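Incident log, entry 3
Record: CAP domain-containing protein (355 residues)
Problem: checksum mismatch between cached and fresh output.
Input:
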Amino acid sequence: MKIFRNFMIIMIIALLVFIVINQMSSSPEEVVREAKPHFDEEEEIIEPKGTAAELPQMNLEGDLYQWIGKTSTELTEDLGEPDRIDVSAYNYEWYVYNNSESQYGQFAVADDEIISVYAIGDDLDMSPIDSGADYDEVADTFSFSNEVTYSKGGASFTFRLSTEDLQTRPLVKISDTTFIQFYFDTITETLSSIRMTTGDALLSQRPYEIEYRGELPEQPVFGEEAWREIQEGMEKQVFDISNVMRYQHDLPQLEWDDQVSLVAYDHSKDMYENDYFSHDSLNGDGLKERLEEKQVAYVAAGENIAAQYPDAPAAMEGWLNSQSHREALLSDEYSYLGVGVYRFYYTQNFLGKPF
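Fresh output:
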């Protein structure tokens, strides 16, 4: 009996040793990195202002911070019916408020819940900072880091920000599930616009490089008709935000031009379908030839193009921070604007027309 008992003890010890060795030899959980989209823009450089804790302890009193998690009914009861509702490329709808020259807002609604808010303009209610605040002031208030984390279920995600990201669109985590993207005008070193977003909405857009354990959510797939609606919404958003940016720089508002929009759309589609990124088409035609082909009369014309930005607000902030694109966007030579978006290729055509 004693021999049997000793045998059992030896067997148990051997089993425990086997389990420990097996666990030690198992492969660690896979860490995957996904690069952010490539941005074809040159940007002015300003120095990032330090790193700090991800969860700032502060009282975010401004109304802008309170919308995440609220319903569309609460939104319309407070702000009224939206001026329009745009379809997005991320399975949510944008409730767009654009009835003011000085302010503009988009509220992303999914399953009747607000999951993201983009706002630009004067006198936005975002205490403890103000619209147009200096970079240093916002960095001192919120503190920027080059790594921001988000966890959901058994998955974990780390957004890795480059030096350029910290300069132009730093990301701040204000709760376990809510983040703020600050968009800066690097020419004036002031706050241009702000985006509140849930972690899930951020994962769907993926504006930063991501390191993650687990699985990324699948990207939605759309047919041609659905894409047409998405693109039309982005075109209108580019137009609206362009005029708010011009208002902030004391410039006259641009008028929408359908014919010029077709020229812009054809160029965006051509770049996507033929896999290039240039103001010159593969046949050598530039904006001048494209306008002449559509018999568009003008005395001055300019063009901005962008590719692979996740949505219209992001593309607009990219143009604002590129000196040559900024000059077209904020020129007093132009009175009309045509916008064409195909997938994630964006084209703006500015026009001054003969009287």
